[in-house]
From TrEMBL:
Pfam family for this entry, one: YtkA
Segments forming domain YtkA-like: 160-242
PROSITE patterns from the UniProt entry: PROKAR_LIPOPROTEIN (PS51257)
Official protein name in the record: YtkA-like protein
Domain of life: Bacteria
Length: 262
């Protein structure tokens, strides 16, 4: 339907002007929400897009586009994203899967974990570094829905602070779902490198009814800080994912929980 509306809009523009091959024709705005836009000192247009309408305390699929001042494309300059929460007395960052250019969409898909909501506790920005230039966007981060927890931090038995974040299922359904989690460690308040080589064991539980589910597959390391397995939701409602986290034979944490509701 949106495509048809767009076709008509384009036809209308064509009749009265010309159907300009401008940025709106190229960037897939139908599927993406514009979060913020700005310009670098040299005039490059940088836009931050989101797969979802709201940015949440969660894993967020974000996209960056970079254009020249005349809206032509710049090629694929190096782009990195740095989220920063200013909490007044201190600042901290959060885990990021850095953007990688996708020539088919002319976008840079990325993943950003926001660990806290914007509000009384502080405010978030995301800085895009494009080659050597920076553009900083204020962003508003909302809490995830009541009774959900998509990202959490725990201190392992090795004394290291880790974050574990749900990437998939982003749209949970009854039955076997792909399960992907992202694990990072807090090297400093500004650095959260991905952690590879852990062993994760997942046990789903429906707390309101006190049962679990069969046929789950423990998430195994794939790449970056990602671990992929399967989770079986036998009914809709509240689900808690319990993770046991091991490094070799050392148990880092016996029970780290994420909560879903669908
Ligand atoms: Cu904070």
């Amino acid at each position: 339907m949106k495509n048809i509306q767009y076709l008509f809009a384009c036809l209308f523009v064509f009749l009265f002007a010309s159907c300009k091959d401008d940025e709106n024709n190229v960037i897939p705005t139908v599927d993406h929400f514009l979060v913020a836009e700005g310009k670098t000192a040299s005039g490059k247009k940088v836009k931050l897009w989101s797969a979802e309408k709201d940015l949440l305390v969660a894993y967020n699929k974000l996209y960056v586009s970079v254009q020249n001042a005349d809206s032509s494309y710049t090629g694929d300059p190096a782009v990195t994203l740095t989220p920063v929460m200013d909490m007044g007395t201190m600042k901290h960052s959060s885990p990021v899967e850095q953007p990688v250019y996708d020539a088919s969409t002319k976008l840079y898909p990325a993943g950003v974990v926001f660990s806290m909501p914007s509000g009384d506790m502080g405010s978030w920005t995301v800085t895009a570094k494009v080659d050597q230039e920076e553009v900083t966007f204020p962003v508003n981060i909302k809490s995830s829905p009541a009774n959900t927890k998509y990202t959490t931090t725990f201190v392992g038995s090795d004394g290291t602070a880790y974050t574990i974040t749900l990437v998939d299922p982003s749209g949970p359904k009854i039955g076997l779902n792909d399960l992907v989690v992202l694990v990072n460690r807090r090297e400093s308040m500004m650095s959260f490198p991905a952690v590879q080589g852990l062993t994760l064991e997942v046990t789903p539980e429906m707390p309101s009814m006190g049962h679990g589910s069969p046929n789950n597959v423990n998430p195994a390391f794939t790449s970056g800080g990602r671990y992929a397995g399967k989770v079986n939701f036998t009914m809709t409602g509240d689900w808690r994912l319990h993770f046991k986290v091991l490094k070799g034979s050392t148990v880092l944490a016996q029970d780290v929980a994420l909560d879903l509701l669908f």
